[in-house]
UniProtKB/TrEMBL annotation:
GO biological process: phosphorelay signal transduction system; regulation of DNA-templated transcription
Protein name: Response regulator transcription factor
Keywords, ordered alphabetically: DNA-binding, Phosphoprotein, Transcription, Transcription regulation
Tagged with keyword Disulfide bond: no
Pfam families in UniProt: GerE, Response_reg
Residue numbers bearing the 4-aspartylphosphate modification: 57
InterPro entries: CheY-like_superfamily, Sig_transdc_resp-reg_C-effctor, Sig_transdc_resp-reg_receiver, Tscrpt_reg_LuxR_C, WH-like_DNA-bd_sf
C-alpha cells in the first residue's frame, strides 16, 4: 500500500486513550503524527496554512470537530479533514462531506481504511496547497507582469509579446524571469500549469 508519509497528520481527540491508540496505529503506517487534546489547541499550534491531514473527533468540549472544520475553512486552510466519532449518524456524515471533509468514520475505525482515507486527504491537500500558492503568486504580479503572463500562456513568442506590450526583448526577458520566480516555475509548461490552477480557484479577469 502506498503511504504518503511526507505530510503531517494531526489527531485531535479529547480522549487520551483514543489519541494514543490512533497515533500508535498511524505511525505503524509510517505517517508523521502529532496529537492534540482539543480543537482550540490544534487551531492555536498547528501550521494551518500548510498541507497535511487532520483526523477530527466530532464531539469534543471547547470546540467541536465541526467548529474546527469551520475555522479551517474560514482561514482557507489546505488541510484535508477526516471526521471520527463514536456517536455518528448519517446526517452528520453527509453534512461533513458537503462542507469538504474527505471522509467520515465511526469509532472503532479499521486501520487500513483510515490510512487509505488519510492518503487521499494528503493528496487532495497537497494539490490544494499548490493551487493556493499559485493564486498567491498571481496576486503578487504587477499589472505589466499579468499582461505578459496572459500572452505567454497563449503560446506567443518573445518577439511577439515584446512587440505587443511595446518593450525591448531584454526588458521582456526580465519580466518573464520575475514571473517564473514568483510562481517557482522552471519551465513555461509549469507556468501554464500554475496559471490553470489560478483560474480554477477563482474566476479572474485573465
Amino acid at each position: 500500500m502506498k503511504i504518503n508519509n511526507k505530510l503531517p497528520v494531526y489527531v485531535v481527540d479529547d480522549d487520551q486513550s483514543v489519541r494514543e491508540s490512533l497515533s500508535f496505529m498511524l505511525e505503524g503506517y509510517d505517517f508523521a503524527v502529532t496529537s492534540f487534546s482539543d480543537g482550540q489547541a490544534f487551531i492555536d499550534n498547528a501550521p494551518l496554512n500548510q498541507a497535511g491531514c487532520v483526523v477530527l473527533d466530532s464531539r469534543m468540549p471547547k470546540l467541536r470537530g465541526q467548529q474546527v472544520h469551520q475555522q479551517l475553512t474560514e482561514v482557507g486552510s489546505p488541510l484535508g479533514i477526516i471526521f471520527l466519532t463514536g456517536h455518528g449518524d448519517v446526517p452528520m456524515a453527509v453534512e461533513a462531506l458537503k462542507l469538504g471533509a474527505v471522509d467520515f468514520f465511526q469509532k472503532p475505525v479499521d486501520g487500513d481504511k483510515l490510512a487509505a482515507a488519510i492518503e487521499r486527504a494528503c493528496d487532495i491537500s497537497r494539490q490544494k496547497a499548490l493551487n493556493l500558492s499559485a493564486f498567491t503568486a498571481y496576486r503578487s504580479l504587477t499589472v505589466r507582469e499579468v499582461e505578459i503572463l496572459n500572452l505567454v500562456v497563449q503560446g506567443k513568442r518573445n518577439q511577439q509579446i515584446a512587440d505587443e506590450v511595446c518593450v525591448a526583448i531584454r526588458t521582456l526577458e526580465i519580466h518573464k524571469a520575475n514571473i517564473m520566480k514568483k510562481f517557482s516555475a522552471k519551465t513555461v509548461a509549469e507556468l501554464v500549469m500554475h496559471y490553470s490552477a489560478v483560474k480554477a480557484l477563482e474566476p479572474l479577469s485573465v
